[in-house]
Design goal:
Helices cover 41% and strands 14% of the residues. The chain is globular. The chain has 3 domains: 167 residues, Rossmann fold; 146 residues, 3-Layer(aba) Sandwich (Rossmann fold), CATH 3.40.50.2000; 63 residues, no CATH class. A 7-stranded parallel β-sheet has the order 3-2-1-4-5-6-7. A 6-stranded parallel β-sheet has the order 10-9-8-11-12-13, sandwiched between helices. The protein is built from 14 helices and 13 strands. Helix 1 links the parallel strand 1 and strand 2. With 405 residues, the chain is of the alpha/beta class.
Length: 405
């Protein structure tokens, strides 16, 4: 069986780590697996993914995509159109989050929604995404849970010995992504008499942040040393798919304070292996940290249960499920699906509609619409119905502000 996973770039991020685990482990089972990188400025060699330990599998560009691929996997919304255009027996969309939440711009949100309307096969890493795809789009997604590779992430020699007089807090996340809430995690950690370390693969800390050490674009193989150097991970993201870093911290012997973001309950249980805080509540995050500072028994209990959790979440079972899913597709006749060019046309029509709505709302609100404009409006209405109410209310307010300007 020949399988290709399609990525936009070779960026080090949680979603790509999972993809490379899929690729590496399927290849070890004897499958012909490769990565197709859409950014053709990235060299098509395994060295482009050298940040992932022992990665030595084929990397190609779309222009060299083979004709005899059995399964082609989209891994992000912006890879979907290209995947629809590539020759392959079956197309699969690996959905790792509700990616509409990555953007404030209404046009971008609806471009993402369009990808979820495509009639291909779906798989995902979290139960909440299985339910979300079913409820909003009618897709029956295969559930392939994430896991942790304890040969890569495990307790290791710290880069700085832990201190006996104070705890060391780690804040991890892309500073450039507001929904990772790195600033809020730093704020919750300040003024507690702890050391604060920060790791980011995008963006630099603000000068007013009171942090003791900053790490930028750390090689994935070195993260275990940073985790092993710290006592507590504070992770307050407002958008996640699976929530990988807390599991990695548990595997390295640390304790976590996390938000109740989507996906946390795949493995986190409040007061059992972590302290869980209502999303966005900085003060409760501080109180949780104070509890861990003052209550050593609580810390040790969460630490022990966290390690039990990490040890129970190995990749073997997940890859067996993935293999079974792909084998099931392989046995089916070639599937048909919407053309990528059709999705591009819809994206263009939606964009033109929004610009018309913002610049000349009186045209949209009258009965002087052309046939093309009626088509655009009807498409918009159908897609609008798939967007959750909370997103619609926020975007409506944004449009109203634009119209007033």
């Amino acid at each position: 069986m020949k399988i290709v996973y399609v990525l936009t770039t070779n960026l080090l991020c949680g979603g790509h780590i999972i993809v490379l685990q899929h690729v590496s482990r399927l290849a070890k089972k004897g499958y012909d697996v490769s990565i197709c990188v859409l950014d053709e400025t990235i060299p098509p060699t395994p060295a482009s993914f050298s940040w992932f330990p022992n990665f030595n599998y084929p990397v190609i560009h779309p222009k060299n995509f083979p004709e005899d691929v059995d399964i082609c996997v989209a891994t992000f919304w912006d890879t979907l159109i290209q995947v629809l255009k590539l020759p392959a027996k079956h197309k699969v969309y690996f959905v790792q989050s509700d990616e509409t939440r990555f953007y404030d711009d209404l046009i971008m949100k609806n471009w993402v929604v369009l990808t979820y309307l495509c009639n291909i096969y779906y798989m995902t890493e979290a139960k909440w995404i299985v339910d979300w795809l079913d409820h909003n789009f009618g897709h029956q997604a295969a559930y392939i849970p994430n896991a942790i590779d304890t040969s890569i992430i495990h307790t290791d020699k710290p880069i700085a010995k832990k201190r006996e007089d104070k705890l060391r807090i780690l804040v991890e996340g892309t500073i450039d992504s507001p929904f990772k809430r790195v600033r809020e995690a730093i704020k919750a950690s300040e003024g507690l008499g702890c050391e604060i370390w920060c790791v980011s693969n995008g963006g630099k800390p603000s000068p007013d942040w009171k942090i003791d050490r900053f790490f930028y674009k750390v090689d994935f193989s070195q993260m275990k040393k940073i985790y092993s150097s710290c006592d507590i991970l504070v992770k307050l993201s407002s958008v996640e798919g699976f929530f990988g870093p807390p599991l990695e911290m548990m595997a390295c012997g640390g304790v976590c304070v996390v938000s109740d973001v989507t996906g946390y309950d795949e493995y986190i249980k409040d007061e059992y292996n972590a302290l869980v805080i209502p999303n966005g509540d900085i003060e409760l995050s501080r109180q949780a940290l104070i509890r861990l500072i003052e209550d050593k028994d609580l810390y040790r209990r969460l630490q022990s249960n966290g390690q039990i959790t990490a040890n129970s979440m190995q990749w073997e079972d997940s890859i067996d499920k993935l293999e079974s899913f792909f084998q099931g597709l392989y046995s089916k006749p070639r599937s048909s699906h919407v053309k990528g060019e059709r999705i591009e046309v819809l994206r263009k029509l939606l964009t033109e509609y929004y610009f018309l709505k913002c610049e000349n709302p009186e045209i949209i609100n009258s009965y002087k619409l052309s046939r093309l404009e009626y088509i655009v409006v009807n498409i918009f209405k159908k897609i609008k119905q798939t967007i959750p109410l909370s997103i619609r209310l926020k975007t409506k307010a944004r449009i109203n502000r634009l119209i007033k300007k």
